[in-house]
Design a protein that fits this description.
Blueprint: E1 6-11, E2 14-19, H1 30-44, E3 51-56, E4 61-63, H2 76-95, E5 101-105, E6 108-110, H3 112-119, E7 122-126, E8 130-132, H4 146-154, H5 156-165, E9 168-170, H6 171-176, E10 182-184, H7 189-200, H8 205-217, H9 225-236, H10 240-250
Parallel strand pairs: 2-3, 3-5, 4-6, 5-7, 6-8, 7-10
Antiparallel strand pairs: 1-2, 8-9
Helix pairs in contact: 1-2, 3-4, 4-5, 8-9
Length: about 260
């Protein structure tokens, strides 16, 4: 599939999505959001893809925010529709994928850019990265899940502070507040990610997908995460990967998982 605003490459089970609007600091517009949805959907359905990495083009920005020119004159109804559709087709969609998604934050991740990174399953940042949700400085609030996911990751008090001040934090501050998992020099970002992807790909893809579902369940209103875990634990017993994994363990050899 051909895209105008993103690049997709695949290599040995790892797919890399690059948001490719460098003149706009990779800002998200509606077309980019739709292209990202299409790419994530295709990759999640590709049995050869085990992990998806997301990064911004260039060395300045992951995603510097949403493209404000698109919605500056919206009514309340259009604004609500924009947020609802965006959450549905991209941000919530990424969070619930069964293929692991890792954000490589290689510069500014602001507004919708930070919301995109937070929708991923975890985050690695370069040491020059800066993050924030500056929407209140525009008379807005985060609309792509930022008020919810930021509080889940850093706690209510810190989330309130970051949102109310509209300020930015450094990569190291983000790590100290558990917003990102790792901080590395920018030139080492991809190679560091490769080491993590190698560790992940040693394991059962189907089990990882079920683990993602169980962990996410804890943050869904009205859902008992423990019950989801119990169900998915049981479902693992019906998979090829469980039979292969246990057999390989008993035979003291490396398992050959197939994601089935």
């Amino acid at each position: 599939m051909n895209f105008e605003n993103i690049l997709v490459e695949k290599n040995k089970g790892v797919a890399i999505i690059t948001i490719n609007r460098p003149k706009k600091l990779n800002a998200l517009n509606r077309d980019t959001i739709q292209e990202l949805h299409n790419a994530f959907n295709d990759l999640n359905n590709d049995d050869l893809v085990k992990i998806i990495l997301v990064i911004g083009n260039g060395d300045k920005a992951f995603v510097a925010g949403a493209d404000i020119t698109e919605f500056a004159n919206f009514s309340a109804e259009k604004g609500e529709m924009l947020a609802r559709k965006g959450q549905e087709i991209l941000f919530n969609f990424i969070e619930n994928l069964t293929t692991p998604v890792i954000a490589l934050i290689n510069g500014f991740a602001l507004g919708g850019g930070l919301e995109l990174a937070m929708a991923c399953h975890f985050r690695i940042a370069s040491d020059n990265a800066k993050m924030g949700l500056p929407e209140v400085s525009l008379g807005l609030i985060p609309g792509y899940g930022g008020t919810q996911r930021l509080a889940q990751l850093v706690g209510k008090g810190k989330a309130m502070e970051l949102i109310m001040t509209a300020g930015m934090i450094t990569a190291q501050e983000a790590k100290e507040n558990q917003l990102v998992n790792h901080v590395v020099p920018q030139e080492e970002l991809r190679s560091f990610a490769e080491k993590i992807t190698e560790k992940i790909m040693r394991n059962s893809p189907i089990a990882i997908g079920k683990a993602i579902k169980a962990v996410n369940a804890n943050f869904k209103e009205g859902v008992n995460g423990y019950e989801v875990e119990i169900t998915e634990f049981g479902n693992c017993f019906n998979t090829y990967d469980f039979q292969e994994g246990t057999k390989a363990f008993l035979e003291k050899r490396k398992a050959n998982f197939k994601g089935k």
